[in-house]
Amino acid sequence: MTPTRRGMMAGAGALAAASCAPVSQARVGALAAGQPAALLIWALAPERLLGWPRSPSKSSLSGLSPRAATLPQLGALTGGGGPADLERLASLRPRLILDYGDVEPEYQALAERLRMRLGAEWHLIDGALDLIPQALFQAGRLLGAEDRASALADLATGILARWTIAPAGPAFYYARGADGLETGFAGALATEVLEGAGWINVATGGRDIGRVSREQVAAWDPEAIVTLSADFVRDAASDPVWRTRRDGTRRRLLWLPDVPFGWIDRPPSLNRLLGCAWLADQGDRAMIERLGPLLYGAPSPASALPRWVE
Amino acid sequence: MKSHLYPLLMGLAVFLAAGTVMATGPLGVHPVDLIAALAGRGSAEAELALALRAPRLVAAIMTGAALAGAGATFQILFRNPLVAPDLLGVSSGAGLGAAVALLAGAGIAAVQGAAFVGGALAAGLTLVCAALARTGDPRLSLVLTGLVTGALASAGLGLAAVLAEPYSQLPTLTYWLLGSFSRATLTEAVLACLPAAAGASVVLWLGFRLDALSLGDEQARSLGLPAGTLRLIAVAAATLMTSAAVAVSGVVGWIGLLAPHAARRLVGEQASRLVPLSMTIGAAFALIIDRLSTAFGPAELPVGLLAAAVGAPAFLVLFILTSRRSA
């Protein structure tokens, strides 16, 4: 019988797992295929997360419970970021690998291939914003954290219901990066939180994330600029080209928090619920203060509230 | 056509291309209004258009001229028409400098400064290693050590891409490396013109000395020229031009290869004519690329990609025409 490629990969995965030294029970847990999945596991069962696909930055760690800093960086199995060392992952003997995001066939195929190689249970959960409650239930069942998942899912359901009927916001331009010239075009994941609440993305004519010129932004003439970047805020706050509209009025600048993770973007995971909650409740802090600890295991930093920059 | 008319024609081409860049754009301001704004009597919108287009114009002209001038200098110096401004690993070094600054969370001005320093360091490393090698042919040493430096910097760039935060740093790094003329403010673009102009002045001053160097060290010395010193000065000047261009615009290839080829076809090999015409053609090419970068929709196409897409076939056509003429 001729060995198949899939059979060889499965064999290699089993061999890698079998050849590893036994690991302590405390290390048995769940792996995140990418950072969105890591946030999902962190919110529901932080004690089961074996490591970060990419370690949070120092400022991000300040908004997470202390355990976050003790977890190793393992690399990503899907999506962007440094690739994971499969042998190292196998040595952790994960029982469960979660991926959270696009469920396109290519990701399903990748999931299947890696499942065979690592010999672990692999689940790909749809990362759509409006499906967050379902994702929480599904992940909660897999992680044995049904109660926590149910509480968070109920909260998410309420937030999303209010978010979709929130009063329409201004026509906005999403300034990404330090120079503000990367943007999410209408329909991009990066701007879904704002668009879903009735804010109008002026960036049309492109797909997903792209780079535009300052003149293009001026031609779009948004009422407001939204950003997560402190560098951009520093440069643009007093720049008349960024802050002046074509009719001479002042353009508003909204600085959204990105600690521990972005409120509308970066990564596209549960962190976006905070943006939805802020929009749904018209800036009411009560829900933010309730939701933050549930997502991150620590209260949101005092500075972590959206701010209209003067 | 008389060859002394070519610089005039290319100067006119730069003027027309610059006029097109200044007169067109998403804001849709009428050119007459723009001219009035230049005289200080335009509408607020025309003044805005001027403020936004002027930095691009300066960045594109400086980048095109600097890369083409550096490319022509290196091609003369190394007697090799396939040499590009990145010969000493400058572009990769500048890219690595920018990448390190981006990963450290630096702002745009700091990233540009780091790119300049990275390019200069890469060139310095190449020169030092070439000097240590002490082979019979110093040009060969420079080429080989430049390859090594470029490869090391490219490996560093790859590592930076792996380490970059995928949702924020990686797109920024990718866009930076693909090149853009819209990144710099007017002050930054004008500041970058200073080292580029200094390098260009030195190269233009070298003039006939470059021609002598292209004949080989023995020939240059027989003319009473200090070959080693002059070569070092020429390499340093070309490196300064390249670093300034990469710092402002990112990695934009092909201009430094294509423009000298086009110029050589028009005015021949003489450095005093080849270098200035190359710079003029480079500036015109960069302006055309800049205009194309925003011509296909609101998303700006990276000028590095466009330079390759337009430059590579243009180079091929030039190559075929030149080889048929010399056959």
Task: Report the uncertain regions of chain B.
Answer: none
Largest sheet of chain B: none
CATH topology of chain B: ABC transporter involved in vitamin B12 uptake, BtuC
Superfamily (CATH H level) name of the largest domain in chain A: Nitrogenase molybdenum iron protein domain
**Count of the domains of chain A:** 2
CATH superfamily membership of chain B, which one? Answer: ABC transporter involved in vitamin B12 uptake, BtuC
Structural class by sheet pairing and helices of chain A: alpha/beta
Could you explain how this protein is built, in words?
The complex is a heterodimer of chains A (310) and B (327). Helices cover 41% and strands 13% of the residues of chain A. With 310 residues, chain A is α/β, with parallel strands linked by helices. Chain A folds into two domains: 5-162, 3-Layer(aba) Sandwich (Rossmann fold), CATH 3.40.50.1980; 171-309, 3-Layer(aba) Sandwich (Rossmann fold), CATH 3.40.50. In chain A, strands 6-4-8-9-10 form a five-stranded mixed β-sheet, covered by helices on one side. In chain A, strands 1-2-3 form a three-stranded parallel β-sheet, with helices on both faces. In chain A, strand 2, helix 6 (105-118) and strand 3 form a beta-alpha-beta unit. Residues 1-27 of chain A have low confidence and may be disordered. Chain B has 327 residues and is mainly alpha-helical. Chain B has one domain: ABC transporter involved in vitamin B12 uptake, BtuC (Orthogonal Bundle), CATH 1.10.3470.10. In chain B, 78% of the residues lie in helices and 0% in strands. In chain B, helix 3 (44-77) runs parallel beside helix 8 (186-206), helix 5 (108-133) runs antiparallel to helix 11 and helix 12 packs parallel to helix 14 (303-326). The radius of gyration of chain B is 20 Å and the shape is globular. The model of chain B has no long low-confidence stretch (mean pLDDT 89). Chain A binds chain B through residues 35, 54, 57, 76, 79-83, 176-179, 181-182, 185, 203-206, 209-216, 218-220, 228, 231, 234-235, 241, 244, 246, 248, 262, 265-268, and chain B through 25-28, 44-45, 48-49, 51-53, 56, 105-108, 111, 162-163, 165-168, 170-172, 175, 180, 182-183, 294, 297-300, 302.
